[in-house]
Specification:
Layout lengths: L2 H49 L6 H14 L3 H31 L1 H5 L5 H33 L3 H24 L3 H26 L15 H22 L1 H9 L2 H22 L2 H12 L5 H37 L6 H10 L3 H5 L1 H9 L4 H53 L4 H9 L2 H17 L5 H23 L2 H12 L1
């Protein structure tokens, strides 16, 4: 198998490990921390997320210039590009740390008066540790991007897998030693430091990367900022859609509603993670194709192939959660978090189409056609924020999720498809034809899942896993026999032979 195929397998392996660790780790964490402290921890993480927006789009921006120079075999300018990015993001890391300190000093004014004195004391400590963490992430991301640009997916995804295992282990050790939410932040910081060291070692030892800090091409900066600014807008949009609800609830409802909403967001994050797992693996290929003439036909073909594959994964996760998710929440988090089920459903449902089309976003970036797309999404994210405030006042965490569901549905199902068709000429008609071929099988699978739900009592984890396993086997059989095309069946046969 090549780097790409192994990288995809490792990506899904990492997601499976994440799910398994969450199944074991999250209930323990919720029990030890309680709703209040868990709500404060997730709120702190959300606030730090706004500062992480500053390095959004780093990988895409670097690859855009890297493949330009690589096409001409211009190694000197590649090394200068490396030095420019490392310098820029190291300075940016220091800048973010200073800004975070200012935010900590003014945290009461930012969050209002719904939190207690002890909760404010805790959030200040958490934000300080997280500020150090994000300052380290900035230069670390540069080294990771160098590995991605050279398609070293085995290393990158193996490191993700390592981090996914070690972070909860360290967290549990610290939790059982009464470090509480502070321990969780320390665990993440320790793993970030290890991640940085591994990336530096690999880049110098195995990739022979060089960094030229003299005569760096600062003339590239305006173009870089222009390109990455609109990617950052997408990150702002994501932050508004998935995290602003916590800030709204902090001012309208308190820490318990934040905790319930956060569990729903966490489930939605896993849903997003599955759909994005293979995106990074295809990014270098997309940027290479974009340098060719008349590449849009090849990109449309790739778009439809990946979309079908994504649909098989996305639909299974969604329908499994819709049918069996309430039982999962009761077993995993407890009765106090039952509203998390409805939050997750509202967040996940409008994304089904969008998550099958994720690869199109990277295509927009490759052609530098992402600016208007991001502005549109940001506008809808602001609308989401505005309508979430009154909804949160009356319906708390459910109201916040309703606001996101409405706006995301409009922009991802209607506007995005018009944009992809008009701006980069992707064959959207072919996409919907390909997806429509799978719909009859999808309906049959829905009916089978409902029958299973009403004929099996789920009272324990064993009951839950047995039902999910049975449903998964039926799902695989149905899509292979009735939904897979010749290419997909051949691909599966080739994998089995290897």
């Amino acid at each position: 198998m090549n780097q790409k195929k192994i990288g995809i397998l490792l990506s899904y392996g990492n997601i499976i490990i994440t799910i398994i660790t969450n199944l074991i780790y999250t209930p323990i964490m919720l029990k030890i921390l309680g709703q209040s402290e868990y709500g404060i921890y997730t709120l702190s993480s959300s606030l730090v997320g706004y500062f992480s927006l500053l390095y959004a789009g780093l990988s895409s921006t670097y690859m855009r210039y890297y493949f330009r120079y690589k096409k001409d075999n211009d190694k000197e300018n590649i090394y200068k590009l490396n030095g420019l990015f490392l310098s820029l993001f190291t300075i940016l890391g220091i800048f973010v740390f200073v800004i975070m300190l200012v935010a900590i000093y003014n945290i009461e004014a930012i969050l209002g008066n719904k939190l207690t004195v002890n909760e404010y004391s805790l959030i200040k400590v958490l934000l300080f540790i997280m500020a150090i963490n994000i300052a380290i992430i900035m230069p670390k991301t540069v080294f990771a991007t160098l590995a991605i640009s050279k398609e070293k997916f085995i290393f990158i995804k193996s490191l993700d897998l390592f981090r996914g295992i070690t972070t909860p282990i360290i967290s549990l050790i610290l939790l059982y030693n009464n470090f509480g939410a502070v321990g969780l932040s320390i665990a993440v910081l320790c793993c970030t430091i290890l991640d940085l060291l591994f990336n530096i070692y690999y880049c110098f030892k195995y990739l022979s990367n060089k960094f030229y800090f003299r005569n760096m091409n600062f003339k590239l900066l305006p173009g870089m900022f222009s390109f990455s600014f609109f990617i950052m807008l997408q990150a702002v949009m994501d932050q508004l859609n998935w995290q602003i609800g916590k800030l709204v609830l902090a001012r309208t409802s308190g820490s318990e509603s934040i905790a319930v909403y956060s569990v729903g967001v966490q489930i939605n994050s896993l849903f997003l993670m599955f759909s994005c797992a293979i995106l990074g693996v295809f990014s270098p290929q997309i940027y290479k194709l974009a340098q060719e003439k008349n590449a849009i036909e090849k990109l449309s073909e790739l778009f439809c192939k990946v979309a079908r594959f994504q649909y098989f994964i996305v639909f299974f996760i969604w329908i499994s959660f819709v049918i069996f998710g309430k039982s999962f929440i009761l077993l995993w988090a407890g009765k106090g978090y039952i509203n998390s089920y409805y939050v997750a459903i509202l967040l996940m449902t409008p994304l089904i189409i969008a998550l099958t089309q994720n690869i199109a976003i990277e295509m927009l970036r490759a052609y530098n056609k992402h600016a208007l797309w991001n502005i549109i999404h940001l506008a809808f994210a602001i609308v989401n924020f505005m309508i979430s405030i009154p909804l949160a006042i009356y319906y708390k965490e459910i109201g916040t999720a309703i606001g996101t569901c409405i706006t995301m549905g409009i922009v991802t199902i209607i506007i995005d498809n018009i944009y992809y068709k008009k701006i980069i000429k992707l064959d959207i008609k072919k996409y919907f034809i390909e997806i429509s071929k799978i719909l009859p099988t999808s309906i049959i699978i829905c009916l089978i899942g409902i029958v299973l739900y009403f004929n099996f009592d789920i009272n324990s984890w064993l009951d839950f896993f047995v039902v999910i396993l049975v449903f998964f086997i039926i799902y695989l059989g149905c899509i292979y026999c009735f939904a897979f095309n010749k290419f997909e069946k051949t691909l599966i046969k080739n994998i089995r032979r290897r």
